[in-house]
Structure formats: structure tokens, C-alpha cells
Amino acid sequence: MTHFDGIPHGVPNYMEPQQFAMPQGWQTVAEITFTVAALATVLVASWISRRRKSWQPLLYTIAGGGTVVNEATLAHLSHATHSQAGAHVAWTSQGLGVPFYAIGAYFPYFGLVLLVLVPLFHDRKLTVRGVWIAALSIVLGVLAFEVPWMATGLWHYYGRQSLQPFGWMPIWYAFASAMLTFVPAVAIARVQDRLHGARSLLLIPLVIMTSIGAVVAVSWPMYMAMSSTWSNGIIHLAALTSIALVGVAVWFCAPLVAQSGRALDRSLPVTAQR
């Protein structure tokens, strides 16, 4: 027998996330911190744009902040939620309130990665190993960013998660979330030379599309398993599969932005090339 909405009895409806009380003091701290960080990120991007005589760094930084439009969708798919009770809500989407602090958080979250990696990827300054290190560094950065704020109770991952130490951010999603910024950085690096003048505005939808596309592409095993009636063993296998798919994504992307063999030869001294 199923509910009127088609969900079997006894199976939680994850489109209706658990309710958590928003810690008011920490919400204020987050609003101030992320607003200042967002402004600082935009100012840095403006300075870089002026130095390079190109609006593109500023545009893709703003686009990174604009990916907050996907917040509710990714939250539902990943079984995550901001604390809703007492939240200062900017807008409501899919039944989930998106707090104001989330808007500010997206600018440094995306902007710092894009401002650092896009030039490195564009100029192919990293080896394949360097690209892998960059991707893993983003994973560690995601954990370093999310876990302390989660500890304050601002947001939560709920339901049938896997690889979730202390009930904080699931390890599998730290890997998946890294693709939110890594893949757009690769895409921008490879197409920015084709975008001039008004065409540079295409960076905005490019970042938003590649961002959500990348995280869904690697997370679909967990998206299926978490909302299923399958065993816990399948949940853990799905989590490991999602992490493996992140590895596949990096493996696909690395040759697109890493030093080529010819570039490596040119960078070596003549004696070394012999």
C-alpha cells in the first residue's frame, strides 16, 4: 500500500526534510562572515579582471555565486537541509527555505577555486599529478569549510547517509561537492578564449550548468540508494561508487588542462631532454 503521493508506507518522504531549529547567534555570524567574504571575493575578482584587462574573472566569479539557484535542488537530492525553524529565508524553492547566508557563502566557495584554478588550467601549468592534487585539495577544502559550520547547527545531512563520521558532512558528498567547482574550472579554461565581448556573458550559464551537471553525474548512485528501500550495504556501496565516479571525472578532465608531453619537453633544460 502506498500513500496518496505514491510513497510506500514506512518509507520516509525525503522531499519533506527533518525540521531543525536555526541557531540565531550563529546565523547572524554566518550572515556577516559570508557577506564580507563575498564582497572581498568580488573585489579580488575585479582587481584580477582589471589587471588582465578582461571581465571574465569577475564574470565567472559572479556566476559561481549565482549557482546558489541550485541550492534547493541539490539539498533535496543529497538529503541536506538548512535549519528551517527561525531561518532568515531569502526564497523558498521545492518546499525548502534558502537562507540569506547561503547566498554570500557561494561567492567565496566558488570564487576562490575558480580564480586560482582557471588560470592554471588555461595555461596548462599543472602536470596530471598536479591536477589530481588540485581536485583532492578541493575535497579537503570542502570538509574544512562545511564541518565547522555544520557543528554550529546551521545545516544538516539527514536520512540514509553513508561515510558520515560524527553525523557531520558525509565523506562521499565532500568528494561529489568538489566537482561543483572543479568541473566548471575545467570548462571555463577550455572555452574562455572563444568568448569575447558580449559572448563572455555565456560564462554565467556555463558555470551554473556544468556545476550542477557535474555533481549529479557523480552522485546518482547515492541519489538512488538513499531514497530506496535497499539494504544498508547497498547504501555504502553506492557511496563508494560515487567516490569512484569522482575519480573517473578527474581522470577525464586532467588531460584537458594538464601539461602536454610537448609542453613538458619545452619546459625541461636541453640536457634533461637528452
Structural key phrases:
65% helix; globular; disordered C terminus; two-stranded antiparallel sheet; 274 residues; single chain
Describe the structure.
The chain is mostly helical. It has one domain. The chain has helices spanning about 25-50, 55-65, 70-80, 100-120, 130-150, 170-190, 205-225, 230-255, 260-265, 270-274, and strands spanning about 80, 90-95, 95-100, 155. A hairpin with a 2-residue loop joins strand 2 (about 90-95) and strand 3 (about 95-100). Helix 1 packs antiparallel against helix 2 (about 55-65), helix 5 crosses helix 8 and helix 6 (about 170-190) packs parallel to helix 8 (about 230-255). The termini are far apart. About 40% of the residues are buried. The model is unreliable at about 260-274 (pLDDT under 50).
Give the proportion of residues in helices: 55-70%
Shape: globular
In which order are the strands of the major sheet placed? 1-4
Low-confidence segments, given as residue ranges, are 262-274
C-alpha termini separation: 74 Å
As a percent range, the share of strand residues is 5-15%
The arrangement of helices and strands along the chain is HHHEEEHHEHHHHH
The DSSP helix count reads 10
What is the average per-residue confidence, as pLDDT, rounded to a whole number? 90
Query: What characterizes the major β-sheet?
Result: 2 strands, antiparallel
Number of strands: 4
The structural class is mainly alpha
Task: Give the radius of gyration.
Answer: 20 Å
How many domains, in number, for the residues?
1
